[in-house]
Specification:
Number of strands: 0
Number of helices: 8
Order of helices and strands: HHHHHHHH
Radius of gyration: 18 Å
Largest sheet: none
Strand content: under 5%
Helix content: 55-70%
Distance between the termini: 29 Å
Shape: globular
Amino acid sequence: MRQDLEDRLSRATSWIEAANIRTGHEAFVFLFVALNAMYGRRQYEGGGTILRTALEDCRAVCDYVIDDPFVDDDLWGRKLSDKELERRRKIQLKELQALRRAHRYERLLTVLIQRLAVLRNQVVHGCVTYGPESKGWESLEAGLEVLRTLVPAFHKLMKQYGHLCAWDSVPYPRLGSDRHLRRGEIT
């Protein structure tokens, strides 16, 4: 296994394990970090039913996240009316549901990750109140449920099929990695 893949998996595993013993905002952030540690540029080939099963397992909550106005970045840009934003989300949700039924997941995952990134930005940049008192708690719980389902599925795909992909160099290679710049090699 290439060093870059090993490093990505090792990092992701540590964050997934940390998220498993956390709840709420901490678990959400830790799972997003795991996702960031893993993602690559290419779609997986030969993933079998891993991704399909994961997306089916969290179908209802994925739909909730897609339809949640508070994680739709367009809401915060204030360029469209609430009515127009709602109309667009409903159309998008129907389109994504049809793609999911056809086992075509790229667009669904793109929209989900975009919505989760908005939620991540809200949490990480202090734009929410901490804990269940937060007005966005339902959005956080839904996002967390999606991440708790998808991140382990992505991890499993990387572990089984990651060797088939070309990986970019891992950012900030860990000490002891073949990719780490040793003190004497820094120019």
